[in-house]
What does this fold into?
Amino acid sequence: MAKRKSHGGEGGHSGKKQKTAHVHEPPTSEEVYTGRQLRQLLAFEQDLRKARHGLQSFKNLLDSIVNNEEKSSEKLQILLEFLESVKPKEREDEVPVYLPDIMETWNMAAQLNNENVMSAVAVVLALLLKIISGSVDLVPYGLGICRTLLQKRQQELLAKNLSADNGKDFIISPTLRLLREAVSLDGGALAAPIFRARNNTFKSLARNIGLRYLGEGVEDPKRPSVRTNAIRFLLSSLKLLHVEAKRDLLSQKDIVAALMRHIRKDPPSLIHDILDTLRASVILDKKLPKEIKIKILNAYSLIRIAELYGYQEDPIENEDGSDRERPSVEESAHAFLLAACTDSDAGIRRSEHGYYPEGVDPNAIPSGVIDDQPVDFGIDSIPWMSKYENDIPVRNSLLAEFIQTLRPWSSTKQNELLVAIFESSPELIAHYFCHKKSFTFDPKLSATWIGYAALLYNVVQLPVPAWFGHAKAYARVPPPTSVVLGNIIPLPMTPKAITRCFSIKSKLASFYAIRLLTLTLQKLGRVLEMHREASSSSESLWEEAARRLLDEFYQRMPDIRDVFKCYLAMDQDDLLQRQAASRLLLLYYEIIPQFALRGRFDISPILLSTIKKVESSAGPSEDVVMSLLELENLCAAAKYSPSMRWFARTSGLPHSPFTTLLRLFVEKTTGLSNKSLGDVLHWVASEHQLVENRTNSAGLYPLIAALRSLENIDPTVWSFLDNCVERCARTPVKYLELIEEQLEKDNITEDEDAITCPLMMTIGEQIPFFVSSASSKTVLKEFVQLLSEYLGHSLAAGVNKSFLNATKDIFASGLGDQKKLRAKLCIPDRKEPTQEAQEELNKYNALTDHGLTNGAIDGVDSDSTHQISADDLEQKLSVPVTTSKDNSLSKWTSKTPEELAEEGYASSLIRLLCSEHSSIRKEALTNIVKMAAKIKDSTYENGEQVWLLLMELTESARSSIADGPLPTVIVAFACKALEVLINPLHCLYEKVNLFLTSGPIWSLDRIPLMQNILQDGPTEDGAFYSEVSWFLGFLLDSLRTPADVALFHKRKVFERLLALTSNPFMGPNLRTQILRIVYRMTTIEGGSDTLITRFGVVSWLLAQRDAAADAAERGVHQALLKRIWETCDQKRISAWSKGGVERFVV
It folds into this structure.
């Protein structure tokens, strides 16, 4: 076979395959004047140099059209003439091929590996399609060219160009531009066919996206890199492809990874294109499934986009006006991440359950609970309740991984992004701080610490999700306490760190700590309110969860004494800090009063100093406003402080704090808020019985209205009022008795609805002293006018008219022989309280009805009472009496000392000392002595204390055992004390041991440890209520016979028990124990009579009933009241109370 002839030229070759030499010679070209000339230039030539010459001439023609140079319209006409001349004729069974000569040239160049021609063809075709896409008339030619490109041979040529070596940018970039123009032509008419040929058209796309610009300086926009062209081709495809094609494209992990890998080093224009396209075509595409969005917006991609925070842009790129209006790269990245991470419909965020971790069922009923008879198994019966202290599973695991990489303390926008994610996905808050171990709040006064503080402030400020994240309503089971607590007070806010913020000499650190604690307490108040709302429909699990939340919250809060020290150390001129600190002190008392009252300090000095500062301030200004806010907060906090002395005079002020505040409130010269100060004044007056504490009482309104009606009030009048309120507060019973005497003296019938005022009696008593010391007649005239106005406004406010007439007579007699003044004294007609004053009255009455403690629950009808039957009451309050059998005398002999003390054998033997039979009592006493000897001789670790207890019991009972049963209180104490001695960790272990070592014999007519527990305080901090609980159980066991009732009466036990309930912080379990003791009294002969006549239990039960917030609790008190009536001597009690008890019961 003969050899083929060599045709020479650039592509010529001999039979032996030669190594191709890549010489980039500049191509030649010529001016094109006609379409025919252009067709001749582009005719297929085996001489590739001539082919390149024609392609370069065609490129010059296209460039002039694209750049809109001179005579561009003529050249466009040449192009149209050329396209029309090469348009293939439609023939059956033949696929038309557009630009066949160019395609043949491209094919030959690919066979001969002529890279210059391969590049030139791609450049020419890309320019041609760009021009065609700008003209509607040329679009059919463009579609034909694109369909030609999709033929198999051209697909292979495209793939060869796209898979060129890494350094062949001049081949790859034009080919990518060509494909981008083809995809975008005619609104993406051929985007789908091009994607179907993705094995060739998308060849090496991931590799090409990774070929970024490696030169010096910034990438030239006119000469984009391979990466830029590849990304623009990808973005155009995402814009125009249908959902299924986008799904397949985004599923290619290598392409997604390559797109995000070097995004921080891309030029700003390309970054904007990437973010805008992904947002419009991926995130906001609701047809695209969320799992596909997550494939491109995975944690890696989000982290790479987040790296754009702080992106430095070259100002040279923003020379034209349109670019200046475009947001910065950082702002675009921020907007993109906000849309991607917070929009559940469009973004990658999955719906979650708020404070309920992933995988729990908040409506699951604990095992053992029957649907029709729910039983409170306690919150510990929920298996997952205490399992999320170290790790919290979340539904949005992708976001959880992403936010761990953010640096919110170093960037304001990252802070905003993280807070926005937390707000849309509250489940992530506790999870974030659980895993962010490097996040420390230890104050260092650096920019990083300020960023930490700002983040914590924003996080704590976030609202609690409705129903804690459960759908439509509260769930049956509350969320885990650790999760709720982590949302209220994040883990970095440790007591140690916050206390350090108070102690270091930095106003900024202390201010941040104060504001954070303020927000924390406000959020806790909202959470507790939500627990109360849910508890009405979910048994007691929510109530128990609220108590546990408070207990754990106390461990995370700094002591109020630290806040108080910080407040005292503040400069008097630092008004902003002082106002914030006073607000924090108030919230301590309002939200967590039990915790606040542990700090025993007197708030009076700082209140007095603030009052002085307000009084000495001149003129309205911002400083005065801040001082007033501070005073309001301190006044409200003083209500809760048990050491506050409202009526004590000090050397720095002419009047007591109460009178000074009253004067500030009346004069209104300081702009002090009526709302807060009025509440305090009404509360103090009611609490100290200056006015009647009952519904519809006028309160202080008449006195305030009378004082405001006067233009000028002499200082002596204020001193007189100060003296009167101090006297009335010191001995209120005296003036209440004066009211009763006055009503009897004037034959005024007692009416339950009649409103009187103890303060009026005090004023009437002190008038003679004021008149005798008055400095002038003008002062007396003003004083008489004040008295008249006081009477008139009292009448308008609803005070009993007969009482006011009698009071007027007292006032007149106090004026003595001042006839003119007495003539001016009257009860003028005054209008009813204004709307503002009526609101104050209504608020005062509401406070009177419901009390001012935190126990009031909104939305509860105070008049509603749940009816409880006698059987239900017995089931709730009746406790079986523990007894011992006679065989206890012999049963103990075979037991070890440990079993005797710890398994109840010793207690059973002790209880036999209460037996009615003297022989059993004597035998029991003998056996107790033997048991004590056996225990003492053993190696039992608690044997010494147990022996001492048994021997002291024996010596105390020896003299009276033959006369009758040992008092039940002694037997019960011995049994209860034995339980304490075997447990060295018991809160009463020290007190019981001290009692045993105080003397060898016990007094049989005293209640052991009553004084030590109720008055001396607890041995351990926080153990008071535990000691009280033990003591109440001991008293309940001690109450069995009429003799026990007599002993309780003699030692005033019930007076102390009933007074215990005045403690607003006593828990419901302790209150129930007291009710059980009262119920036990009703089971003893004569017990109910003693309760009514000696202990005033009827009025006590009525008060407890009215103060109760729950209808079921009120029903218990009413049922117990009825039980007492049914078990008493009704004839005797009815005569004794003149039918009063029966009226309350019935």
User: Anything to note?
Assistant: The chain is about 60% helix and 0% strand. The two ends are 131 Å apart (CA to CA).
